[in-house]
């Protein structure tokens, strides 16, 4: 008895990284050089988001945006904004799995590139390295999905 694979290889799931690049970067030190004379007790505020752009049928651009503002007292020591982007080939996935890959897996791939860029830029700006802690994009995606489902559920 023989078993035939009825799945067309062209329909198989595919994932590939086509390119990883810096889409945008901004670094500001609005209170320099005076900030270097302050007692260094920094407070950081960080914002994180991602955008997805469909480029072609199976080609997507994912842009991970990280903005970190570091203050000493009321003065901004520095502000850094990085848009780390990647182009991903994603083929043959169901819509829910595609959404998960684009919103969790791809940002997870991009984050180490953004983290290194932030650390390097901040250091070159004359400050101590800003070492961002790992981020669990899977948990963030699950929270986002939960919030969406609560918005769509009538009370």
Automatic annotation (TrEMBL):
Entry annotated with the keyword Cytoplasm: yes
Gene Ontology cellular-component annotations: cytoplasm
Keyword Protein transport applies: yes
Any single biological process term in GO: protein transport
Subcellular location: Cytoplasm
GO-annotated molecular function: unfolded protein binding
Assigned keywords, A-Z: Chaperone, Cytoplasm, Protein transport, Translocation, Transport
Subunit structure, as described in the record: Homotetramer, a dimer of dimers. One homotetramer interacts with 1 SecA dimer.
Annotated HAMAP family: SecB (MF_00821)
Protein family: Belongs to the SecB family.
Job description of the protein: One of the proteins required for the normal export of preproteins out of the cell cytoplasm. It is a molecular chaperone that binds to a subset of precursor proteins, maintaining them in a translocation-competent state. It also specifically binds to its receptor SecA.
Record's protein name: Protein-export protein SecB
Gene field: secB
């Amino acid at each position: 008895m023989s078993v035939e694979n009825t799945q067309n290889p062209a329909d198989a799931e595919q994932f590939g990284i086509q390119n990883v690049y810096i889409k945008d970067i901004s670094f500001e030190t609005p209170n320099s050089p005076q900030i270097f004379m302050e007692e260094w007790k920094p407070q950081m505020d960080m914002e994180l988001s991602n955008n997805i752009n469909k480029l072609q049928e199976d080609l997507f651009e994912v842009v991970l945006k990280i903005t970190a503002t570091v203050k000493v007292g009321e003065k901004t020591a520095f502000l850094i904004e990085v848009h780390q982007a990647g182009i991903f080939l994603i083929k043959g996935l169901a819509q829910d799995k595609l959404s998960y890959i684009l919103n969790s897996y791809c940002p997870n791939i991009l984050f180490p590139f953004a983290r290194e860029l932030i650390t390097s830029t901040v250091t070159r700006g004359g400050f101590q390295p800003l070492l961002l802690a790992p981020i669990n994009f899977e948990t963030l995606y699950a929270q986002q999905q939960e919030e969406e489902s609560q918005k769509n559920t009538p009370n």
